[in-house]
């Protein structure tokens, strides 16, 4: 009833090539996910360091203000 012409069916070589491309894309995906996780971890670490430094600056500013008031 339904017959496909030879030009419409992909050859085994084309199927294999498509499968290989799919595997390569998966490997690239994993590589990008690992890189994303590493960068996310670094960003969190930098944000924590930034918060600590911000707190130190605020403490120093308060101390300076207090000393200025004591001197006046």
TrEMBL record:
Ranges of residues in domain INO80 complex subunit F: 32-72
Coiled-coil blocks: 29-56
Keywords of this entry: Coiled coil, Nucleus
InterPro entries to which the protein is assigned, alphabetical: INO80F
Pfam families the UniProt entry points to: INO80F
Compartments where found: Nucleus
Main localization of the protein described in the UniProt heading: nucleus
GO CC aspect terms: nucleus
Name assigned to this protein: INO80 complex subunit F domain-containing protein
Domain of life: Eukaryota
């Amino acid at each position: 009833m339904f017959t496909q012409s030879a030009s419409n069916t992909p050859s085994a070589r084309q199927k294999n090539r498509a499968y290989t491309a799919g595997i390569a894309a998966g490997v690239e995906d994993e590589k990008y996910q690992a890189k994303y996780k590493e960068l996310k971890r670094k960003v969190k670490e930098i944000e924590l360091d930034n918060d600590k430094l911000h707190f130190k600056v605020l403490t120093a500013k308060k101390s300076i203000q207090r000393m200025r008031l004591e001197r006046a």
